[in-house]
What does this fold into?
Amino acid sequence: MSVLIGKERRIIGFLCNWCSYGGADTAGVGRFTQPTDLRIIRVPCTGRINPLFVIKSLLGGADGVLVSGCHPRDCHYAEGNFYARRRLEMCKQLLPAVGIDSRRFEYTWVSASEGQRWQQVVTAFTEQIHALPPIPRIAESPDLGVLEQCG
It folds into this structure.
C-alpha cells in the first residue's frame, strides 16, 4: 500500500547502480516507510541516461520520472554524473516546450549509505507528483497523437 492515500501513480526511477540503487536498498533493509509508486530501472551510471529516456517515459504515460546517481566527485566512472547533470538540466528546461510540466521530472544525488535521504527524496517527489493531475496519455491527447505514429 502506498504511503500516500489515493490511487498510485506511475513514477519511473532511473538509479545509478553504484550509489542510488544502494541507497534505495539501504532504505529497504532499514525498513523505512516509502511510497510504492516508484518503479526502478537500474542503470550503470547516470551519465548513460539519454534525456530521450525521460521524455519517452513521460510521453508514454509515466506521471513522473526521477533520476538519481552518485554525488558529484564521487562517481564510480569519475565524471559520469557531471555529464548527466548537464544533460538532465537541459532536459528539464526542454520539457515545457514539449508540453510537459517540468515538475514531473527531478534528478538528485544519493549515495549507498544514505537510506534515510533516499526515503525523503522519493517521498517528497511522490507527493509532488500526487499534487499534479494525472498526465494525459498520448491516445487521449490530440496534439501528441502524431507521436504515437512515429513509434
About this structure: The chain has one domain: 11-150. Helices lie at 20-29, 51-59, 80-98, 115-131, 145-150. The domain at 11-150 is CATH 3.40.50 (Rossmann fold). The mean pLDDT is 88.
